[in-house]
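> example.struct
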């Protein structure tokens, strides 16, 4: 039975997988992530999976000591995964909606912009990023595009480990060697091993897992026997001219057809069996008759 950490690992990977199947989930996640921009992507992912309406999250001690707010009794913490100790463990944060104020309590400053702030922000964007536009919205979009391109250039290996096989960036190509698995990649691998073993083994044998691991020699050595057997089986398939194994449905249909033919042949089988038994009995009777006649003849000669 999986423990709590494994359950939350599975939740994180399941939520991330849903992004590549439905763009609406990705758009909803971005709204949550925008409110929690100080958190890393894995933490944003965990918060979205458990509390998509969260606006400002902090640990218990931060609410109590710095914000002078108490966490209401019965409030359920939001579990985040921490791998700083070398293995995943859980720690918890609480949303501001889970808290209540004490005297002189502080309320978190949520990011927002009004008309009076737009012009200073536009000037700052033009100065820092060299992006100008008559529309404030277009200027923000252009800055975002520029940052995305820069981030992609610097982190394309990590990005590919996440989106490979999804609908996000189907034509992404690399211009640099792959890096080792990042935090999300390790979480995804653990999830596949524990909860999707068939898919994990398929990826292991066809080489995609080796590719995504950054061509890890450790992974290759750990599974060299399975990979060697897979290559030998593939060579045998190629030599026999087989493209793929029959599907389970096809095998089930063939088995059902053979079973029907077998049942239909039962009457003929029983008839043939009974005839064979009659012939065997007749043969034994004839042999017994001749044996008795032979004994009688020998006794007569002896007299």
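> example.seq
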């Amino acid at each position: 039975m999986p423990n709590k950490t494994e359950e939350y690992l599975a939740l994180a990977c399941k939520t991330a997988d849903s992004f590549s199947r439905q763009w609406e989930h990705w758009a909803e996640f971005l709204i949550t992530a925008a409110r929690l921009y100080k958190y890393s992507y894995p933490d944003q992912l965990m918060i979205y999976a458990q509390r998509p309406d969260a606006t400002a999250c902090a640990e218990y001690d931060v609410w109590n000591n710095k914000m002078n707010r108490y966490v209401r009794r019965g409030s359920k913490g939001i579990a985040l995964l921490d791998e700083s100790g070398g293995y995943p463990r859980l720690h918890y944060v609480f949303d501001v909606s889970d808290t209540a104020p004490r005297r002189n309590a502080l309320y978190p400053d949520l990011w927002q912009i009004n008309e009076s702030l737009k012009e200073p922000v536009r000037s700052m964007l033009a100065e820092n990023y060299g992006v100008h536009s008559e529309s404030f919205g277009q200027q923000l979009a252009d800055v975002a595009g520029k940052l995305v391109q820069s981030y992609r250039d610097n982190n394309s290996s990590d990005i590919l480990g996440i989106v490979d096989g999804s609908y996000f960036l189907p034509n992404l190509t690399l211009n640099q060697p792959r890096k080792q698995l990042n935090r999300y990649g390790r979480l995804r691998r653990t999830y596949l091993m524990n909860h999707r073993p068939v898919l994990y083994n398929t990826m292991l044998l066809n080489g995609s897992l080796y590719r995504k691991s950054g061509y890890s020699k450790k992974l290759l050595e750990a599974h060299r026997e399975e990979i060697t057997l897979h290559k030998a089986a593939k060579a045998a398939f190629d030599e026999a001219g087989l493209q793929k194994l029959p599907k389970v449905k096809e095998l089930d249909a063939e088995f059902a057809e053979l079973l029907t033919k077998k049942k239909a042949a039962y009457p003929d089988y029983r008839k043939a069996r009974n005839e064979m038994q009659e012939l065997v009995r007749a043969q034994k009777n004839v042999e017994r008759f001749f044996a008795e006649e032979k004994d009688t003849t020998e006794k007569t000669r002896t007299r």
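> remarks
Strands lie at 57-58, 69-71, 78-82, 89-95, 99-101.
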